[in-house]
Design brief:
Blueprint lengths: L7 H17 L3 E4 L9 H10 L5 E5 L4 H7 L5 E5 L5 H6 L2 E5 H11 L1
Helix pairs in contact: 2-3
Length: about 110
Amino acid sequence: DYSFKLNKKEKRAALKSALTSKVQGSSLIVVDELKFDEIKTKNFTNVMNNLKVEKGLVVIADNDTNVVMSARNVADVDTTLVNTINVYDVMKAKTVVLTKAAVAKIEEVYA
């Protein structure tokens, strides 16, 4: 077993650093909200095309099943909740899309 434990402060610092690098590289997009009336992948791809996001990570504050299910079939886009966000996913994504509620929760926890 070659695993090791990382302290909470180190995890927070790494996530802050990853998000800061995305902001400085202007590859972080904040939207008001992502809400869909029905589960349609077409609607989600239209939103991503309008934002010009090819490979990305969508971070939402609450578990909205319509958004998660709509994004599930899109190949290069992952969705995650604020409480499950990690440094690897942020750095792997070319563009990070956040909702305003997700930004508020991230500021609350990591600021």
